[in-house]
């Protein structure tokens, strides 16, 4: 599949010149995010997240399985991401690109390894039955900063999902239909958010938050920070690019904390509005 042409020299010079003056092509400030839009589907755990024209669909399903012998008291969480040519003609079907591998690994660190979900609460019968929660991420459209959009869609889907109520009597397990008993939310330890900053070759150009596709292409390095509204740092990822001084990284952290708190309010408000319109008993 032919790759899209790289930006022309006049386009590069124009963007670099504008960024040096703290001007962005879409009119945003350098540290301004595109406002996320969350759309909930008819099923619990079905969430579409949009950052501008970047759109990601997250879907969760759960089933009961036998736990691995080395972790008999913990449930299982798996994350699967899919970047098809529908998102961008840069992606080839059936062949994982470097960007897809990076996003999948980061999602695993942010959503699974940071213990956002209490895995022990997913245990039904020790060593016999646990819940297996599978999160599937579909990228529908790539207009820059897929990672932040995918992380936001994933964490909101985990908060939105409800698993069936389970009753255990001896070794007998009864799974109750949602119409019989209210489904149970997942036990969450915290809510991490991922924020990506782009840096450019010229040191006089300030860093920017939530880069567009063109800004990502022209950047000399990306720094992704995952943290929650309580100032707890989960992941810092910088895959190559320009070197950064420690004080620059600390400035980024202070900005990321403010943005994480703003995102936390947006997510809680969106979930509250969705539940107000649903005819489901919430426990």
Overall mean confidence score, pLDDT: 86
Radius of gyration: 21 Å
Helix/strand-derived category reads alpha+beta
Distance between the termini: 50 Å
Number of strands: 14
Element-by-element helix/strand order? HEEEEHEEHEEEEEEHEEH
Taking the sheet with the most strands, its summary is: 6 strands, mixed
Shape field: elongated
What is the overall number of helices?
5
**Estimated share of beta-strand residues:** 25-35%
Helical fraction: 25-40%
* Unreliable residue runs: none
Brief descriptors of the model:
283 residues; alpha+beta; 6-stranded mixed β-sheet; 4-stranded antiparallel β-sheet; 5 helices; 28% helix
Describe this protein's structure.
By secondary structure, the chain is of the alpha+beta class. 28% of the residues lie in helices and 29% in strands. The chain contains five helices and 14 strands. The strands form four sheets. Strands 1, 2, 3, 4, 5 and 6 form a six-stranded mixed beta sheet that branches. A hairpin with an 8-residue loop joins β11 and β12. α2 runs parallel beside α3. The model has no long low-confidence stretch (mean pLDDT 86).
TL;DR?
The chain has 283 residues and is of the alpha+beta class. The chain contains 5 helices and 14 strands.
List the helices and strands and how they pair.
Blueprint: H1 9-20, E1 36-40, E2 46-51, E3 54-65, E4 76-83, H2 98-113, E5 123-125, E6 129-141, H3 146-160, E7 162-163, E8 166-169, E9 172-175, E10 184-185, E11 193-199, E12 208-209, H4 213-218, E13 221-227, E14 233-238, H5 246-276
Parallel strand pairs: 4-6
Antiparallel strand pairs: 1-2, 2-3, 3-6, 5-6, 7-10, 8-9, 11-12, 11-13, 13-14
Helix pairs in contact: 2-3
